[in-house]
Write a structure and sequence with these properties.
0% strand, single chain, mainly alpha, elongated
């Protein structure tokens, strides 16, 4: 999942560098990135409990 998070970061950066960034695409990418981040955080918490 960290690779997916990294890929999303790259896509966001790439979109922001465009002359006219697509705000809807950025919104979707950021939403998915946040979901991935939440899952990663949840997995880390579970590993600490065990």
């Amino acid at each position: 999942m960290t690779r997916l998070h990294w890929k999303l970061e790259e896509e966001i950066r790439r979109e922001l560098k465009r002359r006219f960034p697509d705000s809807l695409r950025l919104l979707r990418l950021k939403k998915v990135r946040l979901q991935v981040k939440d899952r990663l955080h949840g997995h880390m918490l579970q590993e600490r409990r065990v």
